[in-house]
Specification:
membrane; signal; about 130 residues; transmembrane; mainly alpha; 4 helices
Length: about 130
Amino acid sequence: MSAAVLTTLVTGIAFAAPAAAAVQQTAAVTGMTSGRVAPSLTALVSLFSVVIGGSTLTRIARGRAGNARRGATAGLVSGLIGLVLGSVLTATAAGGPGTGNGIVASWAAMGLGTIGLILGGLVLNRSRDTVGHE
């Protein structure tokens, strides 16, 4: 190799090294990251409110009210917790879907929390009607 080719090659490598170091390798975020734990738990609390509210509403519709007020209260409280915490976690997330910040679980928590609140309110309303007719 000639000296000119060798100098050009070494100079090119020298200038390419900082440019290659500036390129960041971003991998897809998978698994349970620290940013996904709280939103996921919040979504589970909201899902709990939907399950409790739905099952209590079903029992009232079948005429077996039992402790409907307790189910309504559990649905309302857990739905409110899920909605509020989901909103807070959505507002504080530093990225969009796929960044590992739990934004999708926060959105799910807000949606399920709203449904849980609605079901809890229906249960509370129908349990009052059931108690009044007994």
